Amino acid sequence: MPATGRAAAPDRDFIDTVTGFARTLRHAGVPASPQRVQAMLGAVAHLDVLDPAQVYWAGRLTLCADPDDLPRYDSAFALYFGGTDERGGRTTQTPPSVLQAAPFEVDTAAQGADSDEESPTFAVQASRHEVLRHKDVATLTEPEREQLRRLFALLAPRLAGRRSPRYTRAHRGRVDLDRTVRQMLRQGGEASELLRRRRRTKPRRLVLLLDVSGSMAPYADSLLRFAHAAVRSAPLNTEVFTVGTWLTRITRELRARDPDRALAAAGRAVPDWSGGTRLGDALKAFLDRWGQRGVARGAVAVLCSDGWERGDPAELGSQLARLARLAHAVIWVNPHKGKDGFAPSTGGMVAALPHIDVLVAGHSFAALEELVEVIAHA
């Protein structure tokens, strides 16, 4: 379709919008590579970037590489841009799927006199989506929390890989002597080719330890939804525990496919919601019962807490040292790290710093997307 005069090329704001959409697609499981993003930008340069239908088809034809990507793309597009159907048109009712997003509320008075034009609304919706991604979840309104829940439904954390002692067939790598000799015997002793092998890769176990004390209450829902997304993506390689006054394993509860049901089941299983924080004691209980027996060995361990420790910080440091010796990597997620003026000055954080590999923020959806990348490359 020919481009209109006002949209001959995408501007800087739209480039940021497309890259943000591609990021959402990658977390939904669609491999939207930088080359494909560049192809989409090249396509929309010849289209009207304010027309949802044109943007939809430009992205679908450039960002999707496999038929399995199409339903994920449709859900992500409806969620990211809000109020559009699978053909890029405006919806008239809320779709039944949990992955479909309700339209953002747009202040039409702020759009000028031409309030009947729907194209600016399309751009404003994507812009508000980006604002929501970076907003502190403790400050969200209820409609924003509902929108964020739909974002979590698209999140697909990836596990880091490790080399297995077992081998698999390969085109390159070491010569597989056993298979090569067997083939020679079948062919009368002649070596027609050298067969090769390589090490298999297996996903590392992911262990999530979530602080559910009172000081972490504003972030508990988001962290549990992140944990549910991790369990949904790798149910056999993910373990989730809550830590506070007690240690509680909630992996089984989070295996429910529906996130709201999973969180409700986890809520019934955890006896110490919004209680005190005894991270050292809870971590010791985890290591004594679970970690030392193999759950933490070679795993990526993620501890989500603000570091307010009511117990002895020295005990927390001692148990983190044990965990660091067992795990492949120890990641600490502190929601306050994403705020201005943050300093790891609490007793728990001071005791933890020598024994952790990475300290990341966890105050927003964008910060949790960053955590996905940290886990995948640990």
UniProtKB/TrEMBL annotation:
Transmembrane segments: none annotated. It comes from the Bacteria. Pfam families: VWA_CoxE (PF05762). This is VWA domain-containing protein.
